[in-house]
Design goal:
The protein contains no helices and 11 strands. The chain has strands spanning 3-7, 10-12, 18-25, 30-39, 46-52, 57-59, 67-72, 77-82, 91-103, 106-113, 117-121. A hairpin with a 6-residue loop joins β4 (30-39) and β5 (46-52). The N and C termini lie far apart (40 Å).
């Protein structure tokens, strides 16, 4: 099966910085989108940032100018660099990847989720 190795998260003071990383591995898995979602208590899960294989990115309006997403295609790793963190950034952050697997002469769309990592911004 495809493996997602997620690291980062923790407790940080407002205005501080943290970096999250996620590495995906698995034979024959071609990664398209790599993204980070988050879910705060009592709220719906939301997209934070995503990056496609060709390098295109998108960000939630609430994090633009503060977060940066990047990827290393050779290592199938996505990095989320977070700066100027605010208490409202507190949430469980989830790595999400999608792509395709060969299925004979066809391809099967697949999607995987990380286990989630807690980010807490508090003084």
């Amino acid at each position: 099966q495809v493996q997602l190795a997620e690291s980062g998260g923790g407790l940080v003071q407002p205005g501080g910085s943290l970096s999250l990383s996620c590495t995906v591995s698995g034979s024959s898995f071609s990664v398209n989108l790599m993204a980070w979602y988050r879910q705060a208590p009592g709220k719906q899960r939301e997209l934070v940032a995503g990056i496609y294989s060709r390098g295109s990115t998108n960000y939630a309006d609430s994090v633009k100018g503060r977060f940066t997403i990047s990827r290393d295609n050779a290592k199938n790793t996505v990095l989320l660099q977070m700066s100027n963190l605010k208490p409202e950034d507190t949430a469980v952050y989830y790595c999400n990847v999608d792509g395709s697997l060969p299925d004979g002469d066809k391809y099967q769309y697949v999607e995987y989720w990380g286990q989630g990592t807690q980010v807490t911004v508090s003084s």
